[in-house]
């Protein structure tokens, strides 16, 4: 009998579920439900379970485990959230028994439920699905914030040589604030204004650069240099073989990538983007 895994990626405005074929290391089917992180516990659980049920389809009996990519801070072993900035209804709730109840009889009662940090699982998914996984990989998501995951031989690391506390780069201090302040969508907006005096979102600057506007192209070149300068100490300290960039800002990699030089560390945009955490959840 073919074995599948099921992944859930818990986001602030929606949840995505994916059925994964571990032999082919590919996503077979996905399902999504819109649900805000401010929703009550039962509403959140119902949306998660509905998405899981739709993605699993007729394969519920063939699942090896359900992996859940969830933001932190979160007790991955105990299955309890310590978040205070969002998902208020989850705080200090033992999620495994509650989620099993929401999943209902369609899923076997002994199905393992495994939690992982969403940024870690983005990085792990990119590592796991690669035809030639490197020994050391850093995954970074560039969006409204900055997420990061450090992968050493297929395991996420939250400490050790070259790893910031908790594996989190966003809070690393810089001369002007934190690393997140320099490497997110708002950072592109700030660079655009500083270099041109004009306002615009990252998407605006990307559109203008692809239309051949030199000023917009200069904004993205500056962002690429800023990114390289911010991440180089960490790729060097960790001995990273590869840096993978995800998140919406990374969809402009063609514009800023040429400015990102990190020595022997290969740099590439994500191959899977929003599917990567689902693949990482399968790899748990």
Automatic annotation (TrEMBL):
<keyword id="KW-0418">Kinase</keyword>
<dbReference type="InterPro" id="IPR000600">
    <property type="entry name" value="ROK"/>
</dbReference>
<dbReference type="Pfam" id="PF00480">
    <property type="entry name" value="ROK"/>
</dbReference>
<dbReference type="GO" id="GO:0016301">
    <property type="term" value="F:kinase activity"/>
</dbReference>
<protein>
    <submittedName>
        <fullName>Glucokinase</fullName>
    </submittedName>
</protein>
<dbReference type="InterPro" id="IPR043129">
    <property type="entry name" value="ATPase_NBD"/>
</dbReference>
<keyword id="KW-0808">Transferase</keyword>
